[in-house]
Amino acid sequence: MHVPFVDLSRAEREIHPTITGVIEDVVKNGNFILGPEVEAFEEEFARYCGVKRGVGVGSGTEALFLALRSVGVGPGDEVITAANTFIATFNAISLCGAVPVPVDAEPVYYCLDPERLEAAITRRTKAIVPVHLFGQSAEMDRIGQIAGEARLPVIEDSCQAHGAEYKGRKCGSMGDAGCFSFYPAKNLGAFGDAGIVVTDDGDISEKIALARNYGQRRKNEHLEVGFNMRLDEIQAAVLSVKLGQLDEMNASRQQAAGWYYEMLGDASGVTTPARRADGSTHIYHLFVALCPRRDDLRAFLDEKGVGTGIHYPTPPHLQPAYADLGYREGSFPVSEKLAAEMLSLPMFPGLTRDEVQFVCDGIAEHHAG
Ligand SMILES: *Cc1c(COP(=O)(O)O)cnc(C)c1O
User: Fold this and answer.
1) Which ligand 1 atom is nearest residue 285's CA?
2) Distance between CA atoms of 165 and 276, rounded to whole angstroms?
3) Global pTM?
4) Is the CB of 86 under 6 A from ligand 1?
5) Coil, strand, or helix at residue 78?
6) Residue of minimum CA distance from atom 6 in ligand 1
7) How far does the centroid of ligand 1 lie from the alpha carbon of residue 197, in Å?
8) Distance from C-alpha of 200 to C-alpha of 299, rounded to nearest angstrom
9) What is the mean pLDDT of each run of 10 residues along the chain (369 residues)?
10) Is the CB of 178 under 6 A from ligand 1?
11) CA distances, 52 to each of 65, 69, 205 (Å)
12) Could you give all domains of the chain from N- to C-terminal order, each with its CATH number?
């Protein structure tokens, strides 16, 4: 048997004829930029998240950048975020001219540790960006409370949490704005790069709608210096079809996760990802286990025909790109330990019970040997 780390085409194959159909419609209509498909998807996705407005943009990075900018983040400001996030969260902050200020992860749920948040706030802090990492929400009640007391906007990085809930609320709907990526491998993925900002705040959505389109209100009327950071009509049409399947796809991932929890017992030597017990949901963008002998196990599984991933082997504060920030090994010990031990096991909609069994047998065999 061979179990790939990810195979997104498997569960999607059925809807591919529908998708090629809607792409063809866009091609026939010849309207490729800011037309009816983008408008419809913005409304559908905002409704799905339980918020008023959505503004389609070109990627998750652009969503984060434009959202941060819309709440006034600029040069010289500090923006607090999770130390163990994907590099793009840091990049979006840098793109504003601001400085990313990492806060270490809490070890159980892998998200920004609210207990360390207050200490990171300074006079220059302009926003907080919690990251709903791997498909499960950050501790939003506590983060929201601290942000509220400090009068700081919260911009959610929901790029890995499409449809995940925290105490009955959708990720992306709890802060001042929620930012999503539709990179093909996300739980809701386009056929290329795409993203969106969702918000209840009309001021934020208007600012972003202007900024993404050359600062243009009406044709040839440019109110401010803007950008070209738009969601394409073709991608919006694809996303509208796939949004209809998102809950089903997430449920399929949750079923596979259930098998992992069932089969990865104490004898496996690995720690399965913890789920919040407060009515929140995990949508398993990634199924990340902690493995003390990670690299060894990874090589062993590879030999057996099991694909795995590491998200992420080097945290942003230790990347050459952020050497300027002056952090060292040991600056964020929880994130660094996670980076050394995390292993992402095969996870995608349509993964079968037999495949999960094969992966778990391999892990048990490695542990016994
Ligand atoms: C994917 C991702 C992003 C960036 O999204 P792009 O569409 O690739 O720009 C940002 N943050 C997190 C946590 C992500 O997983």
Assistant:
1) 15
2) 10
3) 0.98
4) yes
5) strand
6) 60
7) 13
8) 47
9) 95 94 98 98 98 98 98 98 98 98 96 98 98 98 98 98 97 98 98 98 98 95 96 98 98 98 90 92 98 96 98 98 97 98 98 98 94
10) no
11) 20, 20, 10
12) 9-243 (3.40.640.10), 246-368 (3.90.1150.10)
**CA dihedral sign of residues 137, 139, 143, 144:** positive
Residue with tokens 């990313």: 100
The Cα 264–Cα 274 span in angstroms is 13
- Whether ligand 1 lies within 6 angstroms of the CB of 196 is answered as no
For ligand 1, say whether the CB of 308 is within 6 Å of any of its atoms: no
Query: Using the 8-state DSSP alphabet, how is residue 272 labeled?
Result: P
Is the minimum distance from the CB of 60 to ligand 1 under 6 angstroms?
yes
CA 361 to chain centre: 30
Residue pair 66/199 in contact (Cβ under 8 Å)? The answer is: no
